Queue: 2 jobs
Job 1
Amino acid sequence: MAALKPSERMKIPRQPMPEQEPAQRAANFQEVNCGYSAEAASTEACRCLQCKDAKCVGGCPVNIDIPGFVDALADGDLSRAADILFADNVLPGITGRVCPQETQCEAVCVRAKKGTPVGIGYMERFVADWARQHRKDLFEPPTPTGFRVAVVGSGPGGLTCAGELAKRGHAVTVFEALHIPGGVLVYGIPEFRLPKAIVHAEVETLRRRGVEIVTDVVIGQTYTIHELMKGEGYHAVFVANGAGLPVFQGIPGENLKGVYSANEFLTRVNLMGAYRFGETDTPVIKASQIVVVGGGNTAMDSVRTARRLGASPATLVYRRSREEMPARVEEVKHAEEEGVVFRMLCNPLEVLGDDKGWVSGVRCIRMELGDPDASGRRRPVPIPGSEFEIPCQVFIEAIGTKANPLLTQTTPGLQTNKWGNIVVDDNNMTSIPGVFAGGDIVRGGATVILAMGDGKHAAAAIHQYLTTGCSGNGRAKLNAVP
Amino acid sequence: MFTVQEAQWLTPKVRRLLVRAPRVARSHRPGHFVIVRVHEGGERIPLTIANSDNEAGTITLIIQVVGATTEKLCALDAGESIANVVGPLGRPTEIENFGHAVLVGGGVGTAVIYPQAGALRAAGNRVTAIIGGRSREYVILEAELGAHCDEVFPCTDDGSYGYHGFVTARLKELIEERRDVGAVLTAGPVPMMRALAGVTRPFGIKTIASLNPVMVDGTGMCGGCRVTVDGKMKFACVDGPEFDAHTVDFAELTDRLSTYRDQEALAWNRLHEFTEAGAAARCKMRELEEAATGGRPL
Ligand SMILES: Cc1cc2nc3c(=O)[nH]c(=O)nc-3n(C[C@H](O)[C@H](O)[C@H](O)COP(=O)(O)OP(=O)(O)OC[C@H]3O[C@@H](n4cnc5c(N)ncnc54)[C@H](O)[C@@H]3O)c2cc1C
Ligand SMILES: Cc1cc2nc3c(=O)[nH]c(=O)nc-3n(C[C@H](O)[C@H](O)[C@H](O)COP(=O)(O)OP(=O)(O)OC[C@H]3O[C@@H](n4cnc5c(N)ncnc54)[C@H](O)[C@@H]3O)c2cc1C
Ligand code: SF4
Ligand code: SF4
Ligand code: FES
């Protein structure tokens, strides 16, 4: 394989991802993308030019050795491919599915300049899925160090940090508020995009590596951070509790029956399994017409979930234009194929209700793009007199989240910024020595791989702090060595 | 898993469970609640922690059967277990010395005010409890409250025990008689709390109501528990569940509580039609229904 000339490689077209037919998948919750066959994966691997100065690596927030694992895949050495991948990314089966590759690794792949980039995410997924089935343990059990670290939150940030710390021999306990670990991966991102079985398998791998995961514990309520470090004897803490407080637009009618935050809607359906109401006990309101407001992944997941619950039409309302939607490009394409109606350049003004207090529609106004704002995107401005109504029985707000104050409020001395996000130094250490933080609680709503990058970076810093008594910034630790 | 250590019926529809949950017991303060998921696939429901014992590592839950989940929970016996119990959640009651503090509990709401009694007494208050039920057998925790209160006034709608009438009427009399009531803390059915806010408002007495909206996560993540207080949106699970009753939009709360009525009825029917336990429970419920008229959920 390696004998292929670059010109031959250039001739191979990008291997398409096999997927369920739109009409079929719009009525089920099974995964849309079916995954590469071994043949497609190795063909795709041959498209990679094995660049010396591989730009793709820099485009990945955790700097996976992409040409390395792709080369192993092209050689048919899946075991080696998995080793390379797992060395930099403990959850490749997840990132291969949900990373916004088009703005990260694949955006800077040289092949993107002339045609289509190498399908890095698809191959990553392929190798991870293979490893899940064929490789029971990818890790050597390390010698225990005697240090104990508590991790708050079991989203991608917390899980990654826990895995990295366990690899170095520290005893790690992850505390999770919900009854199942995984964070947004289990309560937010739907089954049809990221099967829960994959998250559970990744969590099991961590458990086998000695990570203890304790659900049903809310840090800030069940224990404070200070109690973890004093009474419970943890030598360091990593906080990755996410940015889970939903924002409402503040328009009239938001408390009508039938208005959901995307978090509530998705939690009911994904985490609580409301799409199988009957087998499960948590209900979700049934509606024939649903409107979702927002343009990110959360909005896209909500509207596609609504579609699968039978909404027709399931309408997405977004105040900018399609090009500006922050959602993954693939999700936008899939949503459209599934029959989601896009109403771009309009914004809800009011939720309308009937005389029984149920949602009956939304009143919107059309927008046009004005001058660029601070983010460089053209600012949407309302067109006077252009109001119109969309009938619906359920209205879902997916306009963002902010920092949940539950933990920060009960942690005196923990510095936060004006949005309530935790402030950290270059080593992800907070204003409290020994307490580190990362992921959405630091960045605001970001991505899975950025949260994982933080978890990985923080684990290295925590390791240094525990073993040398200093964080990289020279701040001494307070807790005694065991 | 969280083991049930003791279980007993307090009234035909209200059960007390003593549950092993050491982490929760450890940091429980009056006003806190837990979220419970009875079994895999079950829904998450909020329940007040009626009592806790840190040394024994246990908490007490007092649950009224109003639907499928509470029924399944109340079907548990000592030795059986609950899949998930998370907490303590919510803000604890703000305990102050009000001089004379009056606790008003309606139905199972009495379980919510019960833990407040001891704390108020310890803070130097004179503590009076007014507790109501449909009839004598629905009045709960009278003796337990007696241990922490200066006076306890049971009330029944049918006059079968104690004061004949609603707790709100008894409260009004008490306020007028004593003229020293510094604060009223209440929990119970929404119409009761709403009426009660109307009683205390003209007297300008500080009134705190413990609200019971539908919840899912209990950590501020979903916003499903939002209520309007003083014209502002609040999340009851993290900002409450206790709020100034004079500024709560009770009409909205009542309306939002009816959101899942159809699905709740479905779940109830399913539980009762398709399982043997359900069939037995249905018989029991029918007896109860005959014994009393009209439902009175919290
Ligand atoms: C619907 C949706 C779709 C998304 N789609 C994508 C996508 O396709 N690609 C992508 O890259 N990103 C996506 N994102 C963003 C991504 O999921 C997040 O950036 C990422 O999950 C953040 O990880 P985290 O570890 O910081 O926190 P989270 O994943 O939010 O996890 C935090 C965890 O901490 C727990 N917790 C909170 N408070 C406490 C406490 N006090 N004590 C104990 N536990 C606590 C929470 O229950 C949760 O389990 C999406 C987000 C949403 C909501
Ligand atoms: C902070 C708080 C403390 C509570 N403390 C107690 C207590 O100590 N003892 C007790 O018996 N009850 C208490 N409740 C009420 C209890 O949570 C509901 O009775 C229970 O959820 C009903 O579930 P169900 O399936 O049996 O009934 P359903 O058939 O589902 O519903 C019956 C009634 O309960 C309401 N309800 C349904 N689901 C929820 C939910 N997830 N959260 C809140 N309400 C819901 C419905 O609106 C309806 O009025 C409390 C509620 C809150 C919010
Ligand atoms: S982790 Fe994400 S960004 Fe990095 S290589 Fe994989 S898909 Fe690309
Ligand atoms: S930039 Fe593209 S072609 Fe070059 S090594 Fe990376 S994936 Fe392969
Ligand atoms: S129950 Fe979800 S925010 Fe309160």
Job 2
Amino acid sequence: MTVDERPEGIGAAPAEAEMSLLVDVGSAWTKAAAVARSRGRWRIVSHVAQPSGWGEDELRAALAARLAPVADRRVAERIADLLRGVPRIACHTPRRPGHIGLAAVSSELSGDAARRAAESAGWSVVEAATADDGRSLSARLAALQAADVDVWLLAGGFDEGRADQALEMAGLVAAARGGAPQPVIWAGAESLTPEVALLFEEGAVQSVANPRPSAHRENPLPLRLLLEEMLQRMVEPGGVRQLTPVSFRRGIAELARSSMRRILGIDLGAHYLTWVLADEAGAAESRVFADGGLASRSLIAQGGAGRLSRMLPLSIDELAVADALRNLHARPGTIPQTDDELAVTHAAARYLLTQASGDAGSVEGVDLLVGCGRTIAAAPRPAQAAHLLLDGVRPVGITQLAIDTAGALPPIGALDDSEIGEGMGVLRDDLLVPLGAAVVIRGGRPGQPTMRVAVHRTGWPDPAPIEVRGGSLQVLPLGRGQAAELEIELAGGVTLGGTRHGRRVRATVSGGAVGLILDARDAPLALPRRSEDRRAVLAGWRDTFLREPAQPVAVAP
Amino acid sequence: MNGATLHRVRIPRGASPTVRVGTDVRPDQVLAHHRRPGAPRHVPLAAPLHADPAHIAGLLVVSPGSMVAEGQVIARTDEGREVQAPTEGLLLGVAASDGSALLSPLGDEEPVIGHVRGTVAAIDESAITIEVPGVLIRGVGGTGSAVHGELAVAVHDPGEELRAAAIDVGATGKIVVGGSRASAETLTRARAMGVAGIVLGGVLDKELRDFEAIQRRRREVGGLTGSFGVLLVEGFGKVGIDPQRFAWFRAHAGRMASLFGADGLLYVYDAQLAPGRRTLPRVGERVIAHRRPFQGRAGVLVAELEDLHATPSGIPARMGLVRFEDGRLAPVPLANLEATLPVPPA
């Protein structure tokens, strides 16, 4: 196939090019990027997104329509047909989440730890029985018997002692399971492992380290890894690498390794939310929330609408918010057409990101934060994407922000080990759209000075240092490809997290579609309690993001 | 007639099917029996077996989850000491705290009713699959349990609200098709009047929650009888039923139907094909819009705009120009439109 690459739209001569497609089939939207080699260089030459229900032919037709103006006119009319035959690198959202039946001793300790480990591994807990859930034993048994599960998860007891109730719960699961073939995971007190195994037929029970080994410690990783492995083996036996949560993790890990940066990637989809933190060596830890996307049941649960209403910068009736969330749940592939619906969708996205951040409500020491998924990466304006990422994740420190507008990162992660590095390398310039950099502080008092930032750019006069007060933020212009040296002076009680303990910090940042964001809103975000004050603060932050960045005042030479 | 649809009726583990593959079943037919385990009895093991309570699990000779008969040995030591079940029941496991076995006597047989008509296609441990000779309408939400009854239309216009006054004794046992919404009061009255189910275009989330809360409270005080289900076919909020679909419901008033509120399904038996829906409408097709500000409105897609255009919210999208039935012409994202397919001639 031939692509006439004309960045300015005119004047360039046709050039021979090879082409392939990167396709991410989501549960609601499918993203496709056409990658072509032109004049020796691979580029993303076009990308489209459409509801997944529209099908392959429409996807090719849409891509062809985008490519036609830049393609060699000899093939322009045949592009859709030609696209049918080009190599395709694809990934897809799991066809269904795995279903877990959970039995634990305590709903707040063992049950909560096991549930979070399961949900972050991509499983959906369809029934949970705990010894303190207030139901009678027979009611618990009836509920467990009625549950349609792929795996039973048993948890309870601390490693240092016995928990006879854990054995009783195990017996309950044995009774509910009744010899059916579903595997049983024992993730409770280590000392009870042989006794639990005796309750089931030989080979049915797999034991794993206790996710709550003591009252004050959690150790969810071994259980999470086991559940991830089981999910891949049992629910998606066809191909693990092509599952978007897996390929996204591989993509982020490779990006971190090749750029030697600590990267946090977030893919917020209709049903899944995948959270990947990868270090400079390419080691990645991921959490997959099977019900963490925009159609999440948590948003339509009792109190969900009220919670979101409090996060809106607009005054929208709570009843309308509730209906909008229900409609989003029912039809996640539709588009928020009005400002109100967009505000509700973005509030939902911020809430989901905050939930995924965990109890801390923030992360520290991330060099690059990458946002994927339509709601973030296809936000109407780049500043809205930055706003979602900063409010939802609260990356304390100095962090570059970027979005995967073309949806190309997950398919690249589906390449095999020998190709993923090359794929990432050749598309490095096009893969992500840089939004700029953010300086996010923790601490500081509202209205009081929290940091003074001097921004030095080569060839520009040095502006006066910018003072940012607690509870506010500023957006400064810093375009894509521009670098700036920052000299940050922090007020007492204010930190940039991680290992940066000094009062004065120097850092080099690069710009993007939004610029440089100086964010002194604390982490987690501190909001006024009174609804009118809170709405005014939220609207102020939104307006700051959406305003054209203000040029800092230059210091007279 | 529409082709048959497979419907899965979940059965609790341990339930005994009363039908076989190939059996024709009625909506009110019992498909299986299930005996719920009652309050468990503690059967002492440690003392009679002279064993450490912490290790009695290893002395069981019957696996937890097994049915045991009265007098059956449930635990035995190497020395030959044994304990028999004092009654028939389900062995739940052991309570290591006091060294006893938990034996749950089973209650009376409870029927599992499928609420669908058809032919049993498959039976497994967790479900009975039935081939249903009816038209399936999928809703976007709902609440309540599985019910069946005759379809009845209780509003004159698909955009009309279903009011409590429209529910009378004639609606008892029926599945009532309403219009654009119903209040919690109307739903409560319908249930109290013995209505089997309600089909609506939309309902306010708050009304549905209020209704569910009322039902919960009534269940807690023990005043709730019978089953009831609600199905929404268009969306949440005040959303009328698409007139084409409403006309189909009206034409099928009097037919038997099965409604599954929580699953969002409605089967109508002996029915002509229902007006279908398809994503990605084509120019000239009749469409229905989802999401505000046009949610639930029908019209004709008169053009597809070239390139991407920003919605009022600023999201670039493929847009179509829709002439709504009230005469308005408006651009709408194609992703928010569904083509409403006409009923093919019989």
